[in-house]
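Notes on consecutive records. When two proteins share a document, each keeps its own sequence and its own token line. Never mix them. Below: protein one.
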Amino acid sequence: MTERPPQRTPNRQLASLISEAGFSNAGLARRVDQLGLEHGLDLRYDKTSVTRWLRGQQPRGTTPALIAEVFTRRLGRRLSAQDLGLDACAPVYAGLEFAASPEEAIDIVGGLWRKDSGSHAELRKIAFTPAGLVVPSRDWLIGRADDRVGRGDLGPSTGRVPTQGRPAIPRQRKEPERGVGAKVTSGDISALRSVGELFRALDHAYGGGHARQALVRYLEHEAEPMLRGSYGEQAGRRLFAAAADLTRLAGWTSYDIAAHGLAQRYYVQALRLSQAAGDRAYGSYVLVTMSRQAVYLGHGREAVQLARVAQQGVGSSAPPVVQALLHAVEARGHGVLGEVRACTASMVRAERALETARPGDEVPYWARFFDEAQLADEFGHCHRDLQQYRVAAQHAERSLQLRAPGYARSRLFCRVVLASSRLGLGELEQACQLGAEAAQAAGEMRSVRAVEYVRDFERRLEPYRDAAAVRGYRDRVAALG
């Protein structure tokens, strides 16, 4: 007697969502295949494949996550494979979720820290997805601070955490038990802040690759046990704020080594942690950072949108320096798109905002870097992208005059902008001299971005490759090894 195959249950959840999204079976299959291409996957689904899924067949591998992302993009809300009646699978989009609660946020970001600090090299190869910016930025904009973040045996209204009797954090334990962690003191939170300043200085001077892994391990072994510890409301907000800052920095250093998909995930989680902290202004800074990455990757439209969401999120009450930063970053997005009028308007707003800043103004620590040197740097990039080379050179020179030596990577970027502008003006020898200086500086850093800036300049040199100045440049760079 022939054994019958097991009876499958029709997938009514998937059918309902297909109807809501207005997809045909063929249309859904086509979108899944296209999304797979974004991740280097050669998928060959068709309308028959979707029919099988509707009849109860489970797609394999990462396909359920891809299907869920197709619906997320279409419907504008985050959907998981389980929401579609599909089995859980390899989470292609893990880390892009904007968590529903502080507890869930700890779980998501803690998982990222642990995987990144281990031998999960594939995590650093995850692709950046522009569509992954939409839902988190929207959820941040319309969301409110969490009602309660306190944990453990401390009431939500105490705000004070005892400083005595804190047991040592068990470093060997990867996942501390919930609710039984150590009490978090103000000293612990101050230490997180100090560590952030240390790693920030290393990043500015030597590039993101210099100490990135050490930062991630610190987050895993120190920050996560604190987040899972005991603290009241006031301490909890400060703790989430410090964790958000370190997580954003982990994203920034990942971005600097071209781990763009990983960086994107860190930024999304930093955004969520800043919401738990009740720090709206810092959330806008995270969005600014996301916008910068989008500019670097050539996604100008998304960069502009992120900058505008940041502006909406903080409103007109933000300090002038913060306003200047937000407008300058929007200008960078318009510059990439070649939108001269919009770029110029944003630059004017940024300049006017910075002019209204006064020495006694209260400026968030994360915005203090934004001064005349940084504004000139932003303007230099904008005018370079708009091929307005004479003005670009003027701003780049001013930035280099004003910028402190500790910002070595920023000085390198600005030198390349100046070199490219000199080249655009036909000043080949000066351009090559500046380019060679930048190449030497890049060789002393662990920064993929620094190398890419130099390579971009070299691509611009190609039409002049037979000129004596260019041959001299190549000889100097070759001698650097």
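Protein two starts on the next line and is unrelated to protein one.
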Amino acid sequence: MATKELQSVAFGSKEAAAMVKELRESYGSGKTRSYEWRVSQLKNIEKMTEYHEQEIIEALRSDLSKPEFESYIQEIALLKNSCTLALKELKSWMKPEKVKSSPVIFPSSAEIVPEPLGVVLVISAWNYPLLVALDPVVGAIAAGNAVVVKPSELAPATSSLLAKLLGDYMDNSCVRVVEGAVAETSALLEQKWDKICYTGNRRVGRIVMASAVKHLTPVLLELGGKCPAVVDSGIDLQVASRRIVVGKWGSNNGQACVAPDYMLTTKDFAPQLVEALKRELDNFFGKNPLQSKDLSRIVNSNHYARLTKLLDEEDVSGKIVHGGERDLSNLRIAPTILLDVPQDSLIMNEEIFGPLLPIVTVDKVEDSFDLIKTGTKPLAAYLFTNNKKLKDQFVRSVSAGGLVINDTIVHLAVASLPFGGVGESGMGAYHGKFSFEAFSHKKAVIYRGFAGDISVRYPPYTMGKLSLILKAMVSGGSIWGIIWALMIYKILNTFKSLAHKLRSTKSE
């Protein structure tokens, strides 16, 4: 049944169960395991993205007023790169990995065989509604799984477009799209999946994880968090400011899980940093940023109200040093910088996920690391410095999903690096080969023949057999250790045999 047919009727638990049953039957046929099927589906995603590029850009503009530049670079291009890499490397990813066997079970050989998990669910977020929906799907298909995609209802134009395009381009017996909101997501979460990938906030992440526990389903959670950016003095402040601005406001106007959520610098350096950020904001978005076509709008009125609440809190609104302008009718909030907001304020205790950037001042830059560690582990953390000792300390002491020195968000474009959180910012990772591995099971396989069978592993058990096995195991399975243990075993058996003969002779 095609996706569009599924969505023409109410979608509840009964429909979800029927869909999963059909997908399991398709997966059980073995078709998704073939190299040819995987390649054909990856190429179809590539074609779909290429042929409908303008429709995708228009959908993203409708949902978020996302600038075309951001739509192409941060969504379309990254998705194409994922497909290109998977198509190039798929044979090597699928190939069993030969590993050393143990001389303890000589002769034998061993390998690790990657196999698909089965039928997986991908629940997407609204801020990057194309990339976050389909980047995990690339990995799931490359690994040989059947997939259900649940796009975010908060990006309705992109959700509708994904349902149409995936229905037209993909093998609907193995790849489905389910549109909808809480009811549809709940119906999906009631089913048994072989893995669930969820991108979004921690509150829903807990719901997803609780649902998965019922079926012992593994989860991949990308949950964001308060990503800090530490700024040291003695740096190229113009370059640093530009990179901070584009990482914060040039990434969906701050509505990105890896955007800097707050900054830390010394009291002495803060005025210079603020002025540098102001200059670059004016250069990039003009004196009236609410009119800029290079800034995304806030996704909806609920998020607008949430951000307004953070900004209007007592003891916070007076800390604005730049920006703060708002336009409710167009759901726009200008890039806003705040200095020395109270640590107990909402803006410092909730993930901002918007165009507000508080700056916290400390006496020494090193104090920033201790402050970061008092909170939950973030999805990303950034440091701007020329001090090698400080870089080393940052990498060694700050735990986060990913770290970047002297830039922001660029680690997302490096396919050889995993993307994922740690602690409350998420679990599991994907991107590049890590996407393939995220949706694969590494199956251990041992091959043996019938030669080389030794009696020491079989009853009747004796102290001599135990001694031999223990010595072989303690030796780490080295061939010389085993030879030495065999020699001792033979010597002991020889002495045992001689002693038995002597006892027999004496008795005679």
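For the record: The chain has 17 helices and 20 strands.
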